[in-house]
Amino acid sequence: MLSTEQIPDWAADPRTRAGRVAARFRERFASEPELWARAPGRVDLMGSHTDYNLGFVLTLPLSRDTWIAARRRDGRTVRVYSMNLDAEDEFRLDAIDRISGSTWCNYVRGVAATLQNEGFELTGCDAAIHGTVPLESGLSSSAALESAVATMFAGLGDWNLTAERKALLCQKAENEFVGVKCGILDQYSSCLGREGCALLLDCRDLSTRAVCIAAGIRIVVCNTMSRRRLSGSEYAQRRAECEQAAALLGVSALRDVTPEMLAAGRHELPERVARRAEFIVAESARAESLARALTAGDRPAVAQLCAESFAGARDLYEICSPAMSAMMDAMLAAPGVIGARQAGAGFGGCMVALVDAARTDAFRAAVRDAYYDSTQVHAEIYPVEAASGAAVFDIAEIGK
Ligand code: GLA
């Protein structure tokens, strides 16, 4: 089981959440926060593993987010407290070390170190963090933390950082300081979200297009509550296989490969590498197709695209797990389902369904029951909204 949490009642109401975070800040640091920053998690609606192949992804920055309450302090010390984990970290801006092992502290430290290396002036501070993005579930709680931290330092230092640059610096922190070779999807989603819209992201030129989802369609995240230990090494292996496919096909990235080119060059590729390439080429095209289908409210097309995506993830890219198959069955059998598929890197974690809005409650209840019947695990099911990207916010305006 993962260390996820349902949003407690107090955190679902923004005013109450603000009150609790401020109270905890006072308790830990004996002062009042002077600045608040927030950044969303994300769920991808289409485009698994297309980002590092420079293809397209359709992504939804989530109403589940990370908040930071902060205050400048004299000197070069940064003290950060995580409410979710009830843990504190302290470091000096003059010597930012990576802590060994995978820990939330490295995301904070990594962003601070990366911003400084780029020449930004950072100030010492106290910060309390609270997130509603479930941890380690494939909804990018780490990118939400990184983007919130970068937003906080920019706000405290009173310097400007465009959303695009912020996303790239957060990705750099994750690639180089934390040591995870992720693509740009998570950080871009967290920094560039627009309220009420999905984003079609072109991972080559990093342009985004807002995609409206037709009225009556609701996005529901379904958490399998499982994660395969190997996901890190499997991720790196998929990346390497894609790079190999691109090199053998004579292009710099699989983005440049059309289905025709792949058919013509397939015999040059080892069988497994060919299957990986086949998935990526089709999945990137599906991201563009799903954007059109969702805007038009074309439910049969949504259903088909999602089904093709899951089948490819299972048979060609091999990122599915038994828990994901059980969840897929539960989602597809539930009332109101329009389409369902994997999300994030795969290997467990969250999946996503597009659901008839009027039947969201019935869908949730049926998925929970069916998934429990087949796995004896209580799934968490979250209907989500599209949220705006990382920003400083005015606590006095919260909940108005
Ligand atoms: C993880 C990575 C992203 C992306 C997805 C799969 O979330 O961090 O960069 O590759 O997996 O689409």
What does this structure look like?
There is one protein chain. The chain has 400 residues and is α+β, with helices and mostly antiparallel strands. It folds into two domains: 9-47 and 57-210 and 388-397, 2-Layer Sandwich (Ribosomal Protein S5, domain 2); 213-384, GHMP kinase, C-terminal domain (Alpha-Beta Plaits), CATH 3.30.70.890. The chain is built from twelve helices and twelve strands. It has helices at 9-12, 14-29, 104-117, 141-157, 163-178, 185-192, 231-249, 259-265, 271-296, 299-315, 322-333, 360-375, and strands spanning 35-46, 56-72, 77-82, 87-92, 125-131, 197-202, 207-212, 217-227, 337-342, 348-356, 380-384, 391-393. The strands form two sheets. Strands 1, 2, 3, 4, 5, 6, 7 and 12 form an eight-stranded mixed sheet that branches. Strand 6 and strand 7 (207-212) form a beta hairpin. The longest helix is centred in the C-terminal third of the chain and has 26 residues, at 271-296. The structure holds alpha-D-galactopyranose (GLA). The site of alpha-D-galactopyranose (GLA) has 11 residues, from helix 6.
Write down the secondary-structure element order: HHEEEEHEHHHEEEHHHHHEEHEE
Distance between termini? 37 Å
Radius of gyration: 21 Å
CATH class of the largest domain: Alpha Beta
The unique ligands bound to this protein are: alpha-D-galactopyranose
Task: Profile the largest sheet.
Answer: 8 strands, mixed
